[in-house]
Task: structure prediction
Amino acid sequence: MTDHDTSNSVEPSFETDENTYSESQYYDGEGQEYSIVKERTWGQRLKSSISDFGFGIFLLSLALFLLCANESRSDHREKVLKQGEKAAISITSDLRDWNNNRKLVHTSGLATTEDILVDPEFGIKAVGIHLKRRVQVYQWKESRRTHVQKLSDGTEKEVTTYTYRKVWSEGLYDSTFFKQKQYRNPKSVAFQSIIYNAKSMSLGGFEFPYDLSRMMSRYVDIEADSELLLGEQVYGHVSKDQTGYYIGNDPETPNIGDMKITFHIVEPAVVSIVAQQIENGFRPWNTKNGPLNLLQYGVKTKDEMFEKAHSENTFATWAGRFGGFAFMWAGFFLLLRPIAVLASVIPVIGGVIGGGVALISFSLAALGTLATIIIV
Result:
């Protein structure tokens, strides 16, 4: 399969009922750039802006939904954390006290296991909480950027450039959706990334549950020391590559579809938790506002753990608010866009009106976001 066409080419322009198009390609030595130039007359732009009115209403509706859902989630989380702060008691993890059964407890200790985790396909073995096989595939990635230039006669020139680069990525990019169909990635590969989890874990004198262990995500590299699969296999040639394996003919000159496979382990570590004690183990503490289950690395006091949990909730809340604001701004802009397009037939006035539409859209979105936050 040919990865790309190394020749520069420019295709002639052609017209449709809506736009005038021209296309060009440029090869830069590493990947391919492919551009589509669309020219819209003032009338075509006005028609397009009016047709976008419905999409603007959809974006406003989506923004309101996201903002309301975000405020509800944030409020419920805050209530859970405040309930937890009042109810949690600190205990020692080395000694089980049956009087604390079904109570919300805070404790610290070594989360550990004696389980030997095994990747059966590669024969990798290690003692740990989680064992991850990471599979990266060499493949094409499509990037897109768009530049719009307004001309003096009200015509708009839009240049969309698609860039194709070869990258190592853990997930497969579906090349069937690429603009240029000659850039093809494999639809499937012989191996996938996977995580193996310990089944028997402990924290001091307690059983340590999976719900808490999955919050432990500090992976460290381990060396692939098995030679079971080296050499020619049905899916390609397997060789050692630094701490892992390489599937392909030559690691120095990779081809599309080649794979790099590495292994990583979450080792036993000292952690602090907040959870409900259930006999000799733990589970999430359920309330009418949601569950509470906290884990942080190191020895942390109860106050430190809840302070960080509040901070994380605040960050998530503001991230959701900015996301809702962005959708609302785009929605208002689409609703007001026909005004800017109408004015653009006169360049000087069009520039002023266009800037005014953007500013008004921003202001309406800010007010709408603030009002939603207050009302909800």
Summary: The first strand starts at residue 9 and ends at 15.
